[in-house]
Amino acid sequence: MCSLGKRGRVFILTLTGDGEHRLSPDVIASVRDALARAKSESAAAGGRGFALVTTAEGRFFSNGFDLAWARSGGSASTARIRLQSMVSLFQPLVADLLSLPMPTIAAVTGHAAAAGFMLAICHDYVEMRGDRGILYMSELDVGMPFPPYFLKLMRSKISDPKVLREIVLEGKKIGASEATAKGIIDRAHGSALETVEAAVRRAEELAAKNWVGEVYGSIRRGALPEVRAAVGLPEETDEERQNLLAASKL
């Protein structure tokens, strides 16, 4: 599951325990609940000047959907139904992060594979542990097609088509140094602790700018229109933008 802590004006969402942090329906629900609490608490405190860091305990950031749970249903058809349910449940989590009214930073302290990789790049910034851990899209190797919103998220976040080809059509496993050089993540760090501390420092710097959270979320959604549409978020209307402008008290 996960916990939600706070350091000053920085929320810290942690996937807890020493396991692989597989994204089962219960884990997805737990993360969504934590994001909703961060959104609610920030709004109650004025709605500006906050940031979120997402990290994990143990060797894994997240190893993707809970395939063991999917296969435990007793038949291939049940496994497919359960897998599709996780694909469907994860989509609104992506929408939550896209809409969250504050900057977001992923502190990737271990392996991030498949949906775990997607969870990382849903964030605005990615800090990653350099001494251990890989980024890896396993779908090609295990014979699973990509959900369309996965591909749109990757196309929006990974600008180099050759790098995208390596990830989705070669199933390449990429360490932090290479991921930094290829523009997949922002920075690599020497250890898990250094990664989290770097993410928190970045979050504190961003929170200190005291931006209006709803304006930040609006701009993020507008900057990623393909992802916004793919996860079912409506396009913002002129009236909604005018309301945000009025609320900013310019």
From TrEMBL:
One Pfam family hit: ECH_1
Identification of the protein by name: Uncharacterized protein
Species whose genome carries this gene: Platanthera guangdongensis
